[in-house]
Amino acid sequence: MMSQGSDTEIALLSAEVRGVEARVRADPFLLLDVMPVAMFVIDSGANVVFANDRLCALTGHARADVLGRSALEFIDQRDVDFALSLIESVPSTNTSDALTVFRN
Predict the structure, then answer these.
(1) Residue 50: count of CB within 10 angstroms of its CB
(2) Is CATH 3.30.450.20 correct for 35-99?
(3) C-alpha R_g of the chain
(4) Contact 30, 24 (CB under 8 A)
(5) Which pLDDT belongs to residue 39?
(6) Which of 61, 37, 39, 46 is nearest to 92 (CA)?
(7) Distance between CA atoms of 52 and 40, rounded to whole angstroms?
(8) How many Å apart are CA 53 and CA 65, to the nearest integer?
(9) Are the CB atoms for 74 and 48 separated by under 8 Å?
(10) Could you tell me the mean pLDDT of each successive run of 10 residues in the chain, 104 residues long?
(11) pTM above 0.90, yes or no
């Protein structure tokens, strides 16, 4: 049986949860950055607007060097046609569209 926390413990945990929620709302890419897989977010022109730490580690590029470049530069050449078809199938919006292409 789990013991019940004190009111003080519950208040501290609630405050911590609210703090995490505020950080995620302020930076929607925060959760993507800690993912253990390489990920990027592109704009409607397929340019990288966000790259997580794992993508940077795998490619050997600093984040600043990845941003603004074509996402196609970071996709295995055998997957470029597939990636282009995915990009073209995403409706254009005013927000960034996420695209992830993996190769085993």
Answers:
(1) 19
(2) yes
(3) 19
(4) yes
(5) 87
(6) 46
(7) 6
(8) 13
(9) yes
(10) 71 84 79 85 88 90 94 88 85 52 42
(11) no
